[in-house]
């Protein structure tokens, strides 16, 4: 059961990584030229989206491979009427009517052909940001393309909106009225400005290009069809937020005892209250492990440090956050350090190999917090025990019951790492 839990956590973590991106610099841009290999990291395609729901993730049903076949389901040529999210050729006037060329065109666009049962309304192209910490003034632009060159009388209205949190229940529209269809073939550049609400968020931010209302028939066509709609050349620009400090460096070092020493240097501070040091083992869930009070307003170099006495075994991500006098918090880019369990110098050991009511086991353990201990028979039956501290770094393990005699196995765990597995004989 313990190992199953670790596997579930691992799988959840890996799924989350695929579903979001972490911003860096001052610009994020995405073309869709590699769609044959799948959606870019952070992107998903959805149906059933509305102002209160992300919608249903249908990424697994994406038609990724371009096809020149004009007849047949799932075709990626513009006029194919099969309702799917597809890898389309990006708009070029020279591609109108040239279906074979559309399949071989290297410039690709992420698109959808809607139907009354797929995405009309509720089709959405969705980008998930891990956070927007220390970033502000977000601007968005992208190409919205109307691609059906033979029919597509119905008109679809597209909006740009956003939601905040792991699974937002409210989405706010920042731009709308962008249309595709009505027998038009074109590519229009759409721009939008995000409100300050998404600045410096320490949680997920979802950006959607979405159709929230059903398509219409403004041409009054007798048998109107929908068009193929697509997006391309997505660009998100933003700025770094000014902070009350100017950070010169933030570094970490693994000490001999596997503790971690963190050091940072500021060259200017104004209205800075304190520093918060946070740690994560997955770059997603950070928890505070310590605070260091500011040395005060200064325009000279100030040195700080903190020691993490109990880091996780394996990769630790450390993030330095600054909190000013009005409680505004700004976090800087994390650093990664890898700690290992070393058994030199008797980091951990259990002895003797005989265990009975009158003969307890002695555990040598150098860390401050107790490990998780399992004692099982060779048939996997749990053996009850109690543990008591005997002296500094030494613990006594005593049998609670005297119902089993024979070979048993002791396992010592710390977090997710197996520190020691040893056979003992219960008499």
Give structural notes.
The chain has 427 residues and is mostly beta strands. The protein folds into 3 domains: 19-240, Jelly Rolls, CATH 2.60.120; 245-339, Immunoglobulins (Immunoglobulin-like), CATH 2.60.40; 348-426, Immunoglobulin-like (Sandwich), CATH 2.60.40.10. It has helices spanning 2-18, 99-104; strands at 27-30, 43-47, 56-57, 84-89, 108-113, 124-129, 135-146, 155-164, 172-181, 186-193, 205-210, 228-240, 245-254, 260-269, 272-280, 287-293, 302-308, 314-324, 329-331, 335-339, 348-351, 354-355, 361-365, 372-377, 385-391, 394-399, 406-414, 417-426. Strands 1, 4, 5, 7, 10 and 12 form a 6-stranded antiparallel sheet that branches. Strands 3-2-6-11-8-9 form a 6-stranded antiparallel sheet, with no helix packed on it. Strands 15, 16, 18, 19 and 20 form a 5-stranded antiparallel sheet that branches. β13 and β14 (260-269) form a beta hairpin.
List keywords for this structure.
Jelly Rolls, 427 residues, six-stranded antiparallel sheet, mainly beta, 28 strands, 3 domains, Immunoglobulin-like, 2 helices, disordered N terminus
């Amino acid at each position: 059961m313990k190992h199953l839990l670790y596997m579930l956590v691992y799988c959840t973590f890996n799924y989350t990584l695929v579903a979001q991106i972490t911003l860096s610099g001052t610009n994020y841009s995405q073309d869709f030229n590699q769609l044959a290999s799948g959606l870019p990291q952070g992107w998903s395609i959805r149906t059933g989206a509305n102002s209160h729901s992300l919608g249903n993730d249908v990424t697994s049903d994406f038609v990724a491979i371009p096809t020149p076949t004009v007849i047949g389901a799932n075709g990626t040529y513009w006029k194919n009427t099969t309702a799917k999210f597809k890898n389309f050729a990006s708009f070029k006037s020279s591609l109108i009517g040239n279906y074979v060329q559309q399949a071989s065109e290297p410039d690709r666009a992420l698109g959808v052909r809607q139907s009354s049962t797929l995405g009309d309304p509720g089709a959405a192209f969705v980008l998930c940001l891990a956070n927007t910490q220390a970033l502000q003034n977000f601007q968005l632009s992208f190409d919205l393309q109307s691609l059906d060159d033979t029919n597509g009388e119905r008109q679809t209205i597209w909006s740009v909106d956003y939601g905040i949190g792991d699974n937002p229940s409210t989405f706010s529209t920042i731009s709308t009225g962008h249309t595709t269809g009505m027998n038009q073939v074109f590519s229009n550049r759409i721009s939008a400005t995000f409100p300050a609400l998404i600045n410096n968020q320490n949680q997920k931010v979802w950006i959607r290009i979405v159709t929230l209302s059903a398509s219409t028939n403004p041409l009054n066509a007798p048998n109107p069809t929908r068009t193929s709609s697509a997006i391309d050349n997505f660009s998100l620009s933003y700025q770094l937020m000014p902070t009350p400090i100017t950070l010169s460096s933030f570094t970490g070092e693994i000490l001999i005892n596997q503790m971690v020493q963190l050091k940072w240097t500021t060259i200017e501070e104004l209205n800075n209250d304190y520093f918060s040091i946070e740690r994560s083992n997955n770059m997603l869930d950070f928890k505070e492990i310590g605070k260091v009070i500011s040395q005060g307003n200064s325009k000279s170099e100030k040195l700080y440090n903190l020691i993490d006495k109990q880091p996780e075994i394996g990769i630790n991500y450390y993030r330095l956050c600054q909190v000013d006098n009005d409680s505004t918090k700004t976090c800087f880019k994390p650093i990664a350090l890898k700690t290992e369990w070393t058994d030199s110098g008797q980091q951990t050991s259990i002895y003797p190999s005989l265990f009975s009511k009158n003969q307890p086991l002695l555990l040598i353990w150098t860390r401050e917090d107790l490990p998780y201990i399992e004692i099982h028979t060779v048939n996997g039956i749990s053996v009850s025990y109690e543990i008591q501290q005997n002296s500094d770094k030494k613990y006594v393990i005593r049998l609670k019951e005297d119902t089993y005699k024979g070979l048993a196995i002791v396992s010592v765990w710390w977090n997710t790492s197996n520190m020691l597995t040893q056979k003992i004989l219960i008499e």
